[in-house]
Design a protein that fits this description.
Layout: E1 4-13, H1 15-22, H2 30-45, E2 55-66, E3 69-75, H3 82-96, E4 99-102, H4 105-120, H5 125-128, H6 136-139, E5 150-152, H7 153-157, H8 168-174, H9 188-193, H10 197-221, H11 227-242, H12 247-255
Parallel strand pairs: 1-4, 4-5
Antiparallel strand pairs: 1-2, 2-3
Helix pairs in contact: 1-2, 3-4, 8-10, 10-11
Length: 258
Protein backbone atom coordinates (compact mmCIF):
# COMPACT_ATOMS: atom_id res chain seq x y z
CA UNK A 1 0.00 0.00 0.00
CA UNK A 2 1.42 3.36 -1.03
CA UNK A 3 1.52 5.74 1.95
CA UNK A 4 -0.97 8.61 1.70
CA UNK A 5 0.05 12.00 3.07
CA UNK A 6 -2.59 14.71 3.27
CA UNK A 7 -1.10 18.10 4.11
CA UNK A 8 -1.99 21.73 4.71
CA UNK A 9 0.06 24.80 5.56
CA UNK A 10 -0.55 27.97 7.53
CA UNK A 11 1.32 31.18 6.79
CA UNK A 12 1.84 34.72 8.00
CA UNK A 13 3.28 37.75 6.20
CA UNK A 14 7.04 37.56 5.62
CA UNK A 15 7.74 40.69 7.62
CA UNK A 16 11.52 40.54 7.24
CA UNK A 17 11.19 40.06 3.51
CA UNK A 18 8.81 43.00 3.29
CA UNK A 19 11.28 45.17 5.20
CA UNK A 20 14.02 44.20 2.73
CA UNK A 21 11.91 44.80 -0.36
CA UNK A 22 10.58 48.15 0.80
CA UNK A 23 13.71 49.41 2.57
CA UNK A 24 11.96 49.66 5.93
CA UNK A 25 13.70 50.28 9.23
CA UNK A 26 13.94 47.38 11.69
CA UNK A 27 12.39 49.60 14.35
CA UNK A 28 9.01 49.53 12.58
CA UNK A 29 6.74 47.05 14.34
CA UNK A 30 5.87 43.79 12.57
CA UNK A 31 2.15 44.55 12.62
CA UNK A 32 2.77 47.94 10.98
CA UNK A 33 4.94 46.39 8.25
CA UNK A 34 2.25 43.82 7.54
CA UNK A 35 -0.51 46.44 7.53
CA UNK A 36 1.43 48.52 5.02
CA UNK A 37 1.70 45.46 2.75
CA UNK A 38 -2.01 44.74 3.15
CA UNK A 39 -2.91 48.31 2.21
CA UNK A 40 -0.69 48.25 -0.86
CA UNK A 41 -2.25 44.96 -1.91
CA UNK A 42 -5.79 46.29 -1.42
CA UNK A 43 -4.98 49.28 -3.59
CA UNK A 44 -3.59 47.01 -6.32
CA UNK A 45 -6.11 44.15 -6.28
CA UNK A 46 -9.03 45.04 -4.01
CA UNK A 47 -8.09 42.45 -1.37
CA UNK A 48 -5.25 42.04 1.11
CA UNK A 49 -4.12 38.53 0.13
CA UNK A 50 -0.36 38.87 -0.32
CA UNK A 51 1.59 37.38 -3.26
CA UNK A 52 2.59 33.79 -2.52
CA UNK A 53 6.33 34.49 -2.24
CA UNK A 54 5.60 36.89 0.63
CA UNK A 55 3.92 34.24 2.80
CA UNK A 56 6.08 32.79 5.59
CA UNK A 57 5.29 29.18 6.51
CA UNK A 58 4.73 28.66 10.22
CA UNK A 59 2.93 25.30 10.27
CA UNK A 60 2.67 22.26 8.01
CA UNK A 61 0.08 19.79 9.28
CA UNK A 62 0.17 16.21 8.03
CA UNK A 63 -2.14 13.20 8.11
CA UNK A 64 -0.30 10.01 7.19
CA UNK A 65 -1.95 6.69 6.34
CA UNK A 66 0.75 4.04 6.24
CA UNK A 67 0.61 0.26 6.75
CA UNK A 68 -1.97 -0.27 9.50
CA UNK A 69 -1.68 3.18 11.08
CA UNK A 70 -3.10 6.66 10.73
CA UNK A 71 -1.48 9.62 12.48
CA UNK A 72 -1.72 13.40 12.51
CA UNK A 73 0.94 15.89 13.53
CA UNK A 74 2.16 19.41 12.85
CA UNK A 75 5.62 20.54 11.80
CA UNK A 76 6.23 23.89 13.44
CA UNK A 77 4.28 23.07 16.59
CA UNK A 78 7.43 23.49 18.68
CA UNK A 79 8.22 26.85 17.12
CA UNK A 80 10.86 25.64 14.65
CA UNK A 81 12.13 28.08 12.05
CA UNK A 82 10.55 28.21 8.62
CA UNK A 83 13.50 26.54 6.90
CA UNK A 84 13.48 23.60 9.30
CA UNK A 85 9.73 23.10 8.91
CA UNK A 86 9.92 23.05 5.12
CA UNK A 87 12.99 20.80 5.05
CA UNK A 88 11.33 18.28 7.35
CA UNK A 89 8.27 18.18 5.10
CA UNK A 90 10.34 17.40 2.01
CA UNK A 91 12.48 14.94 3.99
CA UNK A 92 9.26 13.00 4.61
CA UNK A 93 8.61 12.85 0.88
CA UNK A 94 12.16 11.58 0.34
CA UNK A 95 11.56 8.90 2.96
CA UNK A 96 8.08 7.65 2.04
CA UNK A 97 7.45 8.74 -1.59
CA UNK A 98 3.81 9.11 -0.55
CA UNK A 99 0.67 9.89 -2.47
CA UNK A 100 0.24 13.59 -1.62
CA UNK A 101 -3.30 14.84 -1.08
CA UNK A 102 -4.32 18.47 -0.63
CA UNK A 103 -7.14 20.94 -1.03
CA UNK A 104 -5.85 23.74 -3.29
CA UNK A 105 -2.29 22.51 -2.76
CA UNK A 106 -1.46 23.20 -6.38
CA UNK A 107 -2.79 26.74 -6.19
CA UNK A 108 -1.37 27.75 -2.83
CA UNK A 109 0.46 25.33 -0.52
CA UNK A 110 3.02 23.90 -2.91
CA UNK A 111 3.89 27.15 -4.73
CA UNK A 112 4.45 28.77 -1.34
CA UNK A 113 6.69 25.86 -0.30
CA UNK A 114 8.58 26.19 -3.59
CA UNK A 115 9.31 29.90 -3.13
CA UNK A 116 10.13 29.61 0.55
CA UNK A 117 12.24 26.52 -0.12
CA UNK A 118 14.35 28.61 -2.51
CA UNK A 119 14.74 31.29 0.14
CA UNK A 120 16.09 28.77 2.66
CA UNK A 121 18.15 26.56 0.36
CA UNK A 122 15.93 23.52 0.89
CA UNK A 123 16.85 20.18 -0.68
CA UNK A 124 13.96 18.12 -2.07
CA UNK A 125 15.38 15.73 -4.64
CA UNK A 126 12.56 13.18 -4.64
CA UNK A 127 9.85 15.82 -4.86
CA UNK A 128 11.42 17.47 -7.92
CA UNK A 129 12.14 14.16 -9.69
CA UNK A 130 10.66 14.12 -13.23
CA UNK A 131 12.21 10.96 -14.62
CA UNK A 132 15.88 11.85 -14.73
CA UNK A 133 16.82 9.21 -12.14
CA UNK A 134 13.57 7.25 -11.77
CA UNK A 135 11.76 6.53 -15.04
CA UNK A 136 8.43 6.04 -13.27
CA UNK A 137 8.46 9.73 -12.43
CA UNK A 138 8.47 10.68 -16.10
CA UNK A 139 4.88 9.47 -16.34
CA UNK A 140 3.70 10.19 -12.80
CA UNK A 141 5.38 12.88 -10.70
CA UNK A 142 4.50 15.45 -8.05
CA UNK A 143 4.71 18.44 -10.38
CA UNK A 144 2.35 17.80 -13.27
CA UNK A 145 -1.19 19.03 -12.75
CA UNK A 146 -2.58 15.90 -14.39
CA UNK A 147 -0.42 13.33 -12.60
CA UNK A 148 -1.57 11.59 -9.44
CA UNK A 149 1.42 11.61 -7.06
CA UNK A 150 0.01 14.91 -5.90
CA UNK A 151 -3.79 14.95 -5.91
CA UNK A 152 -5.23 18.43 -5.47
CA UNK A 153 -8.79 17.44 -4.68
CA UNK A 154 -10.21 20.93 -5.14
CA UNK A 155 -8.61 21.29 -8.57
CA UNK A 156 -9.63 17.83 -9.79
CA UNK A 157 -13.22 17.92 -8.51
CA UNK A 158 -13.67 21.31 -10.20
CA UNK A 159 -12.31 19.73 -13.41
CA UNK A 160 -9.53 22.34 -13.41
CA UNK A 161 -12.05 25.18 -13.76
CA UNK A 162 -11.40 27.90 -11.12
CA UNK A 163 -14.99 29.12 -11.28
CA UNK A 164 -16.11 25.65 -10.14
CA UNK A 165 -13.87 25.58 -7.04
CA UNK A 166 -15.56 24.83 -3.71
CA UNK A 167 -14.39 25.77 -0.19
CA UNK A 168 -13.20 22.81 1.86
CA UNK A 169 -15.30 23.90 4.83
CA UNK A 170 -18.52 23.91 2.79
CA UNK A 171 -17.91 20.58 1.10
CA UNK A 172 -16.80 18.89 4.31
CA UNK A 173 -20.00 19.94 6.08
CA UNK A 174 -22.13 18.80 3.13
CA UNK A 175 -20.51 15.37 3.57
CA UNK A 176 -21.32 15.30 7.28
CA UNK A 177 -17.76 16.10 8.32
CA UNK A 178 -16.88 18.71 10.96
CA UNK A 179 -15.39 21.37 8.68
CA UNK A 180 -13.20 24.08 10.14
CA UNK A 181 -12.64 24.27 13.89
CA UNK A 182 -11.53 27.21 16.00
CA UNK A 183 -10.81 29.86 13.38
CA UNK A 184 -10.73 30.65 9.67
CA UNK A 185 -7.70 31.44 7.53
CA UNK A 186 -8.09 35.17 8.11
CA UNK A 187 -7.64 34.59 11.83
CA UNK A 188 -4.18 33.05 11.58
CA UNK A 189 -2.17 36.30 11.50
CA UNK A 190 -3.99 37.84 14.52
CA UNK A 191 -3.64 34.55 16.42
CA UNK A 192 0.07 34.39 15.57
CA UNK A 193 0.61 37.92 16.85
CA UNK A 194 -1.04 36.87 20.10
CA UNK A 195 1.33 33.91 20.44
CA UNK A 196 -1.40 31.31 19.84
CA UNK A 197 0.70 28.92 17.75
CA UNK A 198 -0.93 25.91 19.40
CA UNK A 199 -4.39 27.08 18.30
CA UNK A 200 -3.13 27.57 14.75
CA UNK A 201 -1.74 24.02 14.71
CA UNK A 202 -5.05 22.60 15.93
CA UNK A 203 -6.93 24.54 13.26
CA UNK A 204 -4.56 23.32 10.56
CA UNK A 205 -4.74 19.72 11.79
CA UNK A 206 -8.55 19.76 11.64
CA UNK A 207 -8.32 20.99 8.04
CA UNK A 208 -5.92 18.23 7.06
CA UNK A 209 -8.11 15.50 8.56
CA UNK A 210 -11.14 16.96 6.77
CA UNK A 211 -9.08 16.81 3.57
CA UNK A 212 -8.13 13.18 4.16
CA UNK A 213 -11.74 12.20 4.83
CA UNK A 214 -12.90 13.93 1.64
CA UNK A 215 -10.18 11.94 -0.13
CA UNK A 216 -11.64 8.71 1.26
CA UNK A 217 -15.07 9.68 -0.07
CA UNK A 218 -13.46 10.42 -3.44
CA UNK A 219 -11.76 7.01 -3.42
CA UNK A 220 -15.14 5.42 -2.74
CA UNK A 221 -16.74 7.37 -5.59
CA UNK A 222 -14.12 6.33 -8.11
CA UNK A 223 -14.17 2.68 -7.06
CA UNK A 224 -10.74 2.54 -5.41
CA UNK A 225 -12.42 1.59 -2.11
CA UNK A 226 -15.36 -0.73 -1.52
CA UNK A 227 -18.11 0.28 0.90
CA UNK A 228 -16.57 -1.99 3.53
CA UNK A 229 -13.06 -0.63 2.99
CA UNK A 230 -14.37 2.93 3.21
CA UNK A 231 -16.08 2.21 6.52
CA UNK A 232 -12.92 0.55 7.86
CA UNK A 233 -10.76 3.51 6.84
CA UNK A 234 -13.13 5.97 8.51
CA UNK A 235 -13.21 3.84 11.64
CA UNK A 236 -9.41 3.85 11.77
CA UNK A 237 -9.48 7.66 11.76
CA UNK A 238 -12.19 7.74 14.43
CA UNK A 239 -10.31 5.28 16.61
CA UNK A 240 -7.03 7.16 16.26
CA UNK A 241 -8.55 10.53 17.12
CA UNK A 242 -10.55 8.96 19.93
CA UNK A 243 -7.32 7.97 21.70
CA UNK A 244 -6.25 11.59 21.93
CA UNK A 245 -7.05 13.72 24.97
CA UNK A 246 -6.79 16.93 22.93
CA UNK A 247 -10.04 18.95 23.10
CA UNK A 248 -10.02 19.79 19.40
CA UNK A 249 -10.22 16.11 18.49
CA UNK A 250 -13.06 15.55 20.92
CA UNK A 251 -14.91 18.44 19.25
CA UNK A 252 -14.03 17.06 15.81
CA UNK A 253 -15.50 13.66 16.65
CA UNK A 254 -18.62 15.18 18.18
CA UNK A 255 -19.31 17.06 14.95
CA UNK A 256 -18.54 14.18 12.60
CA UNK A 257 -21.92 12.89 11.45
CA UNK A 258 -20.98 11.07 8.23
Amino acid sequence: MTPVLAFDIETVPDVEGLRRLHGLDAAIADRDVAEMAFQLRRQATGNDFLPLHLHRVIVVSCALRERSAFKVWSLGAAGEGEGEVIQRFFDGIDRYTPQLVSWNGGGFDLPVLHYRGLVHGIKARRYWEQGEDDREFKWNNYLSRYHSRHLDLMDLLALYQPRANAPLDDLAQLLGLPGKLGMAGAGVWPAYQEGRLSDICKYCESDVVNTYLVFLRFQLMRGALTDQQFREECELVRATLGKSKEPHWKEFLSRWRA
